[in-house]
Amino acid sequence: VSGAPEPIEPALRLDRRQGWPETLRFLLRQYPREVWPGHQRLDSLAQFWLQRHAMLRALAGALRHASGELREGRVAAAPFRAWFAPRLGFFLDQLQGHHEIEDQHYFPLLMRLEPKLVRGFAVLENDHALIHAALARLDTQGAALVRATEAPLADLTGAAAGFAAESDGFLAQLARHLDDEEDLLIPLILDRGSDPLTDG
Ligand SMILES: [Fe+2]
Ligand SMILES: [Fe+2]
What we know:
Layout lengths: L25 H5 L13 H28 L5 H37 L4 H33 L5 H37 L2 H4 L2
Helix pairs in contact: 2-3, 2-5, 3-4, 4-5
């Protein structure tokens, strides 16, 4: 695949998308989610991928939940900070690293494996760019929240509400991206095996 990338059609942008159009669902129709667990070609790579996604969903949800607990006064500033600050940093690092290896290693191999899905993987790459921008905003709100827990006169409730609001939008985008990515790549692995993704 060479030349400038085609622009993403509006209906497939992350903030508008409601799953994949029919033209990108031919493998998903053959391998619907119900058959994934226990499938003989759901190998260690495919399982690892699903586990990474589950971890990212759970951690993002836990960070959002914790900010709500702080805002409602159910947890004190110091224990909140001790729990929240390292997990926010870990989450940001893990998600960025995950996207990097997908963009640089796996997506090009997956596109080569099934040219009829190239458009879908290009959409997912575009998602990564949008999520990256949202991640920067989440980082800013999270850092402001951590600072507020350290300053005696800070507006802790306001900072917690700011983080919660940013993470609500972020979580919706992340969930859409992870679900759609799984719907594209897990059926492809079940159909072809993951050897083409690990060789070389
Ligand atoms: Fe991704
Ligand atoms: Fe992913």
